[in-house]
Amino acid sequence: MKRSTAPPEKMSPRIAALQSMEWNELKAMWKELFGREPGINNRKYVERRLTHRLQEMAARERHADLLRSNERRIRHLLETGAIQPKKQGTLRVGAVLTRNYHGALHSVRVLDGHCFEYCGRQYRSLSVIAREITGTRWSGPAFFGLRNPSIKENS
């Protein structure tokens, strides 16, 4: 697949132009982006897939660092069979941590100021949430898979 040289903010006009393009132009763009002719002669389908591919390309350029980080973690998982622990302190506001515990799915949303929301209440610690879920003392980051529970931190 060829990469677009247009910056992400230039993708919107390209997407808008799809509707006014001739069929042979759409097929040429498909071949450029997918490496082959479209296997279907449905214009609406081709326009939707081209739109999706252009959006993918824009996101790939906009979030290149995140994609590289994910690729490294996937390679590590495939090579070792173990999930590479995330660095602590990398939780972004709005992220949702989930854990299936005894058949129930528990979700925690990361708020600003190092706070967390669980079941409509705010907490200052993941460990307190883990204790509420399990009834026993747990490391919150270990419980939610943010670090290996067997690794002790030096403080």
TrEMBL record:
<dbReference type="Pfam" id="PF11149">
    <property type="entry name" value="DUF2924"/>
</dbReference>
<protein>
    <submittedName>
        <fullName>DUF2924 domain-containing protein</fullName>
    </submittedName>
</protein>
<dbReference type="InterPro" id="IPR021322">
    <property type="entry name" value="DUF2924"/>
</dbReference>
